[in-house]
Design goal:
180 residues, 10 helices, single chain, 66% helix, mainly alpha
Length: 180
């Protein structure tokens, strides 16, 4: 009987195709929906960026997005060209750089604040990616930021009409005679 059905499907008289009880074919969204991959990857990146200081793993991010780790990894790699794990490490590194440059938080506390598991691991990762230690990076970038701010302030003062006067309009009002 099975052979007859198979033969009938292939060479049924009158061109009829036997469907064996299948009413319709439903395609999975994951195979046809490129936008779903984009949306999933963008939501994952947003989650990673906003939760950098917390313990993050690919599995935790996938669970938060209600998808499998494989689906998340595949979508993320297709959209961003890097793995979720590498992007978590990169987000932590960027947050550490920002904290080093913009705050006076002790270097020893930064790894914990950005979610690294151990200070030793974070120090190795930081040096491998930047070519310098956290302390050296802080010295270089805080000095350059201070120099840039001081240079901008000097430029603003030099270009103002009162030369060194932060508010020439106020000075002009004070020196003008009172109107009766």
């Amino acid at each position: 009987m099975h052979n007859a059905q198979c033969e009938g499907a292939a060479g049924a008289p009158g061109g009829a195709v036997e469907t064996f009880g299948v009413r319709r074919v439903v395609e999975r969204m994951s195979t046809t929906d490129a936008h779903g991959s984009l949306s999933r990857a963008v939501r994952a990146r947003d989650y990673i960026r906003t939760h950098t200081g917390e313990p993050l793993s690919v599995a935790a991010v996938a669970k938060k997005l209600c998808c499998s780790t494989r689906m998340l990894q595949k979508s993320y790699k297709a959209v961003y060209g890097i793995t979720v794990r590498d992007d978590i490490a990169e987000a932590r590194l960027e947050k550490a750089k920002r904290l080093l440059a913009e705050t006076k938080t002790p270097v020893g506390e930064i790894p914990e604040l950005v979610g690294f598991e151990s200070p030793l691991h974070s120090a190795r990762h930081f040096k491998a990616r930047t070519g310098m230690s956290m302390s050296d990076w802080r010295r270089q970038h805080q000095a350059s930021a201070a120099g840039t701010q001081a240079g901008l302030w000097r430029e603003a003062l030099a270009s103002s009409p009162g030369r060194g006067d932060p508010c020439p309009a106020l000075r002009a009002r004070r020196s003008s005679p009172a109107i009766p």
